[in-house]
Amino acid sequence: MIKALLLGLNALMFIGFGLGFILVPETVTPLFLGVPAPQGDLLVDMQATYGGLSLAAGLYMARCAIIRQFL
Length: 71
Known about the structure:
Number of helices: 3
Shape: elongated
Largest sheet: none
Helix content: over 70%
């Protein structure tokens, strides 16, 4: 029970972090990384790297928390 709860909380944090970097990277980048958001191709790369990977990891953790055999 506690494993699923902790995994679910981590999943929510990763999903929120990933969605933030995908949808509003200009706002989230200074908050988490402390640097201004890059422009152009670098912004797209940041969205894919930080946003996409975090979102995928969060969704996988959520799936594992829901399906108990993966705990």
